[in-house]
Design goal:
This protein is about 65% helix and about 5% strand. The strands form two sheets. The chain has a two-stranded antiparallel sheet with strand order 1-2. A hairpin with a 2-residue loop joins strand 3 and strand 4. The relative contact order is 0.12.
């Protein structure tokens, strides 16, 4: 059976930015990563896949098609019942030397956070758009990525079949899920406008996954760093922590870029000063505490109250 032009368009959108060719995947396949780097991947990947069933549940709630609902429910049950898929991922992480607690509490890289936020936003979109993004744009990529990733885990890195079960089970399951996803999106994208929206969401999904994988490459392979101050600003007298995160790619300088950078820096400084003032005003200063103490002492001795450092005669 020949493919429809729309199906071909969806497949082309996936192939154009497929993460099986990402630099992090290439390092993985060539056996050029170590177990610490693979463990860091597992911790970040947990932050993404542990929420996937919930996003599918949100799509299920708005699904108008009983057949599609059956498929989504089957997907959720596979992830959440019996031996959970995330537990298989944690098993792999532990084989890399990363504990369950470290995996579950790992801080998301900015690019991981971008992917999870995009997935949540997509799950709230109209059904044909949500299905296109999550099922076609993301899930259909998994077999192609893991078919490359699994063999070197045993050949180059020395893992056992038990330790890499997470990858093996997803190659088969997600190949079926991806095909069903294509069929569902085709069935519900009934107008040219809906087809455009679905195709664009698939394109966005592949870009977001590529960005997520590139974030792993830059943080754990290139080991780039940035300074990341907390939003609320540091506590009074506290040091700003330096955190290892992914940097945005360098771009050629644009006209007026220096002025814009200076303006952004000025705004950041202003926000930090305001945070300091707000925190300072939230508790009394030393002078205020001294006045309050003096006032209590004078009242105890029978003297007048203190106001601004001056004695105020009683009644």
């Amino acid at each position: 059976m020949s493919k429809s032009p729309f199906r071909a368009r969806l497949e082309a959108a996936v192939i154009a930015r497929h993460s099986r060719l990402n630099p992090f995947t290439e390092k993985w396949v060539k056996g050029e990563l170590n177990r610490a780097q693979l463990g860091a991947w597992a911790a970040q990947h947990y932050q993404y896949v542990s929420q996937f069933a919930r996003w599918c549940a949100a799509v299920y709630a708005e699904c108008p098609d009983s057949d599609a609902r059956d498929f989504l429910l089957e997907n959720i049950i596979e992830e959440e019942s019996g031996v959970k898929h995330v537990d298989l991922l944690i098993r792999f992480a532990e084989a890399c030397g990363v504990s369950r607690k470290e995996v579950e509490t790992a801080q998301q890289l900015p690019t991981t956070r971008a992917l999870t936020a995009w997935c949540y936003e997509t799950s709230q979109r109209p059904f044909h758009v949500a299905a296109a993004g999550l099922l076609v744009g993301l899930e259909s990529q998994v077999p192609g990525i893991y078919q490359r990733s699994l063999p070197p885990l045993k050949a180059h890195y020395g893992f056992t079949d038990h330790e890499v079960e997470f990858f093996a089970i997803h190659i088969e399951a997600d190949e079926v899920h991806g095909e069903r996803g294509y069929q569902i999106v085709e069935r519900h994208s009934t107008t040219p406008e809906k087809q455009d929206e679905a195709a664009d969401q698939v394109r966005q999904a592949t870009e977001m996954r590529w960005l997520y994988m590139t974030g792993l490459y830059r943080a754990y392979v290139l080991k780039e760093e940035i300074r990341d101050a907390r939003r609320a600003g540091p506590r009074r007298g506290a040091r700003v922590r330096v955190r290892r995160h992914v940097l945005a790619p360098r771009r050629p300088a644009q006209p007026g870029q220096a002025r814009r950078d200076e303006a952004h820096l000025s705004l950041a400084r202003l926000a930090l000063r305001r945070a300091h003032r707000a925190m300072s005003s939230a508790r009394p200063g030393r002078r205020d505490r001294d006045l309050c103490r003096a006032d209590r002492e004078r009242r105890h001795m029978g003297g007048g109250a203190v106001s601004g450092g001056q004695e105020r005669p009683r009644g």
